[in-house]
Amino acid sequence: MEITGHSVEQLLDPTGILEGDRYEFFLDLDVPEEDELFSEHGIQLRVLFSIIGEEKRIAHYDFIEQMTNQILDFALEEDEKSMVAEYCAQHLI
What we know:
By secondary structure, the chain is mainly beta. It contains 1 helix and 5 strands, in the order βββββα. A hairpin with a 5-residue loop joins β4 and β5. It is globular, with a radius of gyration of 14 Å. It starts with a strand and ends with a helix.
């Protein structure tokens, strides 16, 4: 799995209930054909990224099939999760 591009938007909390800042990333992924996650329609990873003080972390994520917007039931492996968190931290608005 390789990240080939992204879009990012800061999410605003009008209620002020949530602590810190939240960002929504849509990461474009290049997934090899032999991977069970592969889809001819393309795969994106939607990531809600949270920053509270010095702590930067993935709050939630979903794999999404691009053409259908269907959420896929897959999980990131620990090394992939670290890679995605680092990518998001480097590409904040």
